[in-house]
Design goal:
This protein is an all-alpha fold and 171 residues long. The chain is built from eight helices and no strands. The longest helix is centred in the N-terminal third of the chain and has 14 residues. The N terminus is likely disordered.
Length: 171
């Protein structure tokens, strides 16, 4: 095969099957694919192959693609930290819960996940905080005071009595 240029190869729809095969072997090759000439179905297929191969390929998926949300669930289901690589508008409670439930090498390390997600990329909500503390009560340390409801504090202490230290006092 002789190509005019590598850009031509990655953007020409007649090489769709080859592009799809390449990203299914190495998902990060998606960065090279120029999808402007592909149909919506071809774009979806190529992106799905890439993310199924390598969850970090989600970084290169345009959030305008119709199956972006499903691809986000796949990526986060494979590795919790890919939540930091998806568009914030797509971080729903469902995706958030997948991330929290996915990460569980041991309870001490879980607290680092719980520190990273609420303080960094994802907005805290009462439901998300409840998920945190049910996973590891010590995560209460990283819950904003405005979300430290009775239910959140009770669940944290029930999970780990040492989290009592982070329960606000009633004046």
């Amino acid at each position: 095969m002789h190509f005019k240029s590598k850009e031509y190869f990655w953007s020409d729809p007649k090489y769709y099957n080859l592009c799809k095969e390449i990203v299914s072997i190495n998902g990060e090759m998606l960065v090279n694919v120029n999808m402007t000439k592909y149909t919506e179905k071809q774009k979806k297929d190529i992106c799905e192959c890439a993310v199924n191969n390598n969850e970090w390929a989600i970084r290169f998926v345009n959030d305008k693609i119709s199956n972006y949300y499903d691809l986000c669930k796949i990526a986060v289901g494979k590795h919790w930290h890919t939540i930091s690589k998806i568009s914030q508008a797509f971080i729903t409670d469902e995706i958030f819960e997948i991330a929290v439930n996915k990460y569980e090498p041991n309870k001490h390390r879980t607290i680092f996940l719980l520190r990273e997600i609420p303080l960094g990329y994802v907005e805290q909500t009462i439901n998300r905080c409840l998920l945190f503390v049910k996973k590891n009560g010590l995560a209460l340390k990283f819950v904003k005071d405005c979300f430290k409801s009775f239910d959140v504090c009770y669940s944290a202490v029930k999970n780990n009595g040492l989290s009592l230290e982070f329960v606000p006092s009633i004046d």
